[in-house]
Amino acid sequence: MLIVLAKAKVTAEALDAARPAIAAMVAASNAEEGCIAYAFTQDLGDPSIVHIVEKWRDEAALTAHFATPHMATFGAAIAGLDFSVMEAVKFPTDDGAPVM
Fold first, then answer.
1. How many C-beta atoms lie closer than 10 Å to residue 44's C-beta?
2. pLDDT in tens, 55-89
3. Which of 34, 48, 83, 99 has the fewest C-beta atoms lying within 10 Å of its C-beta?
4. Which three-class secondary structure state does DSSP give residue 68?
5. Residue ranges of the alpha helices (H) in the chain?
6. Phi and psi (nearest 5°) for 47?
7. Count of CA atoms in the C-beta half-sphere (13 A) of 59
């Protein structure tokens, strides 16, 4: 399994403009074969930061995700916006265990 953690810097106006594209991206990504979880969240401590949290079955599923039409559509939707990914890191992991 892979966990992907990404962080983007975005203005309030860009985030408002990107919301429909984000919603479509989240829905389409969560429907992908091999996607276990996919979410965007706004940082409560710094509203100009958006976190993207992803959980994939394996490397092949993540690679397939990057080639999907909805990934290209999302990229085009945010291309003209003040929306810049600051970091994106993947972590290979096992199935995990409850924290408590």
1. 7
2. 999 999 999 999 999 999 999 999 999 999 999 99
3. 99
4. coil
5. 12-30, 59-66, 69-78
6. -60, -10
7. 2
Exposed/middle/buried for residue 60 (C-beta within 10 Å: 0-12, 13-18, 19+)? exposed
pTM: 0.92
The two tokens of residue 27 are 């829905």
H or E element that contains 39: strand 35-42
Contact between 29 and 65 (Cβ < 8 Å)? yes
| Number of neighbours of residue 59 by Cβ within 10 angstroms | 13
Sorted by sequence, the CB contacts under 8 Å of residue 70 that are 6+ apart come out as 24, 25, 28, 29
